[in-house]
Amino acid sequence: METPLWMQVRESPGAAAKKAIYQEAIISGCWIFSTVSKKWYTPDEFMASTETVHMHRDKDDGRKFVVKHPLVGLQERIDLLHRTAKEIDEFNKRLHNYYELRRKQTKQPHQR
Q1: Are 22 and 64 within one domain?
Q2: Are residues 88 and 51 in the same domain?
């Protein structure tokens, strides 16, 4: 005997969308990146995570999750690290130059 429709447990639209993202990652051999939490997930970690896919008018918030190869993500992080190191170096030079100039300016009046 079949379970009546009113007794059947149905998957929520958000859960179905999460499963679709999972399946896309599995098929493509990729991982899932959350643009909100900035975390990388293997497909299985994604399904076990507390990350949720929100549905609005039957459309999931696809911008929240990106399916891509983890090596692409690794390269992006390396590039970010290089940019950050360059910014730190430039800031450090400005800091050094500023205080070196200030030191020279404060010494000049005392040398008279």
Answers
A1: yes
A2: no
